[in-house]
Specification:
Layout: H1 7-24, H2 29-46, E1 56-60, H3 68-71, E2 76-80, H4 84-87, E3 102-104, E4 117-122, H5 132-141, E5 143-156, H6 162-167, H7 180-189, E6 192-202, E7 206-215
Parallel strand pairs: 1-2, 1-4, 2-3, 4-5
Antiparallel strand pairs: 5-7, 6-7
């Protein structure tokens, strides 16, 4: 297990910012954000997720265009990402455009647990962290019985490739390499009931999966 601020994680963070700069270079910021908001809505619809108005919501690993771009005026959102200050240099992100969102530029592992949230969104971020177990612990610490969460990640399709990717930087943007079964087990061990699981995308090596969970009232 990698520690907080491990070399592999620092390299991944550097590559993440570079990836965004290259990806956005030829795109209109307005068109990109409109397409991203439409994408977020399609994902919520597919997961049959109800957006509770005025709920306290956490966007964990929000990136420069997380789900806060869709829900910023419908829920009370706290958005967390260690690269937030760097994202200010990107044309698609400005904190000033989201005055009701509380932005916290910190790694999830180092975040002092905040008030319990009504719902948590952690889209395609948990495999970017330095310490996978601690990050899942942190998400759980910021929930209460009945809190709903969407967690999504690329997961390995082939068991024989998993140790190879863990040993070698075959996927340098993602320090964490896990299978779907590991996610299910880790969530259940922390008291999360998996209500729904969806495969949102498939590639030759990975499935991009999302879990809709609820923290058990017995925990």
């Amino acid at each position: 297990m990698a520690g907080v601020n491990s070399l592999r994680w620092r390299v991944a963070q550097f590559l993440e910012l570079r990836w965004w700069r290259r990806y956005l270079r030829q795109q209109s910021p307005q068109e990109y954000l409109a397409a991203k908001r439409a994408y977020w809505q399609r994902v919520l619809n597919r997961l049959e997720w109800t957006v509770d108005a005025d709920a306290r919501a956490l966007d964990a690993g929000c990136g420069p265009a997380g789900i806060f771009t869709l829900l910023y005026d419908r829920q009370r959102i706290t958005a967390v990402d260690p690269l937030l200050r760097r994202y200010e240099s990107l044309p698609v992100f400005s904190r000033a455009h989201y005055p009701w969102v509380r932005f916290i530029p910190q790694p999830l592992e180092e975040l002092t647990p905040l008030e319990p949230f009504d719902c948590i969104y952690c889209f395609n971020a948990i495999n970017h962290v330095s310490d996978w177990s601690r990050s899942l612990d942190q998400l759980t610490a910021m929930a209460r019985p009945g809190t709903r969460m969407i967690l999504s990640s690329d997961v390995h399709r082939h068991d024989w490739l998993l140790p190879v990717f863990r040993a070698l930087p075959g996927d340098a943007l993602h320090p964490q390499q896990h299978g779907a079964a590991e996610y299910r087990a880790a969530l259940r061990q922390r008291g999360w009931q998996i209500v729904r699981e969806e495969r949102l995308r498939r590639t030759a090596i990975f499935d991009y999966r999302a879990w809709v969970c609820e923290l058990d009232s017995a925990e």
